[in-house]
Amino acid sequence: MPVVAGTGYGWAQALRFARIAEDAGADALLVMPHYLTAAPQDGLVAQMERIAAGTRLPLIAYQRGQVAYTAESVRRLTRVPGVIGLKDGHSDLDRLQRAVLAAPDDFLFFNGAATAEVQARAYAAVGVPAYSSAVHAFAPEIANAFFAALRGGDTGTVDKLLRDFYVPLVELRDRVPGYAVSLVKAAARLRGCPVGPVRAPLTDPSPADLAALTTLLTTGLDLVGAAL
């Protein structure tokens, strides 16, 4: 399987991470947003140009937080050697569709919204069918069943999984900042993977929320005929 390693922050730090990833045998890099401050479009493009010039690995820009490219900036990114795609975490579908239309057909776009399945149909409607699944990290049976149903046009299964598993998971996730990470690690532990706790300033789920996650995970696995 291809490995896409994370890099980012300032361009100098990003290149240090890139060299580590190259030495470890990674296949590509996902460029996380720079730290803290907002930046103009020229600066966002220059950041990607700097990183691309210092690594042999292909780059996927990740727009989320303070990074949001305009359609014109995406067009500029497509001309940067080594930049092969854009992952979106904003869910501004009007802005994203403009970016898709501005890019050549071979430029890659990914739905990177939190709990991406909830918005998968909307993203696909603007030309971005590919998505990354946090659920796949702890319940690949559920994630694969959803993907197969979505791809096969099985609306009934898609709706049932959304209604009974994904939407309640989002509601649980939204109770506490950082649960988008904490719940994934907690669910992985429930499935027998000793990933350890999150690091401060994030917090692990409360006992009540962990119990709710356990119940929800059991429900989701039951829906697809798997077992906790």
TrEMBL record:
InterPro entries hit by this protein: Aldolase_TIM (IPR013785), DapA-like (IPR002220)
For whether the record's keyword set contains Lyase, the answer is yes
The record's listing under Pfam families reads:
DHDPS
Annotated membrane-spanning segments are none
Its domain of life reads Bacteria
Gene3D superfamilies membership: Aldolase class I
Keywords of the record: Lyase
Write down what this protein is called. 5-dehydro-4-deoxyglucarate dehydratase
Which organism was this protein described from?
Streptomyces violaceolatus
